[in-house]
Specification:
CATH superfamily: Thiol:disulfide interchange protein DsbD, N-terminal domain
Order of helices and strands: EEEEEEEEEEEEE
Distance between the termini: 14 Å
Radius of gyration: 15 Å
Helix content: under 10%
Structural class: mainly beta
Largest sheet: 4 strands, antiparallel
Oligomer: single chain
Strand content: over 45%
């Protein structure tokens, strides 16, 4: 499996440190999207319940040859009570792989574009939610 680094996403950390999250894409079957999350940081799961932090959302924008053929799947999140939200939150740390069942209506060599809405937080601060686009 060959990963192509596409975008360093999330705001840079203080002092020129690397961004909190770097996204990369592997156009395998299924398409694999990897979040490399810096130590001490986390993002929220695809299944994060409403009323708390922002759940991660992943989709393929319209107007391309690639379409989702099923539900985007992520790994089992870590569940932990968070007093700031007064609820149990679901998060991911480290390297996280999301599986996107997708098919191309044209050539399998057609470029694929994936959009991700996410929020990166540590134990002191949360970056504003953002949407990034990864293409390969």
């Amino acid at each position: 499996m060959t990963w192509l680094l596409i975008v360093a996403a999330s705001l840079p950390l203080a002092g020129g440190d690397p961004p909190a999250v770097v996204w990369s894409l592997d156009r395998a079957s299924p398409v694999l999207l990897k979040a490399t999350i810096s130590p001490g940081w986390h993002i929220y799961s695809l299944t994060q319940p409403a009323g708390g932090p922002n759940a991660t959302r992943i989709w393929l924008p319209e107007g391309q040859a690639w379409k989702l053929t099923g539900r985007v799947l992520g790994p089992q999140p870590r569940k932990k009570y968070d007093g700031a939200f007064d609820m149990e939150v679901e998060s991911h740390e480290g390297d996280v792989i999301f599986r996107l069942p997708a098919a191309s209506s044209g050539s399998t060599g057609a470029p694929i574009v994936v959009r991700v809405y996410f929020q990166a937080c540590n134990d002191k601060v949360c970056h504003p939610p953002q949407t990034v686009e990864i293409a390969k």
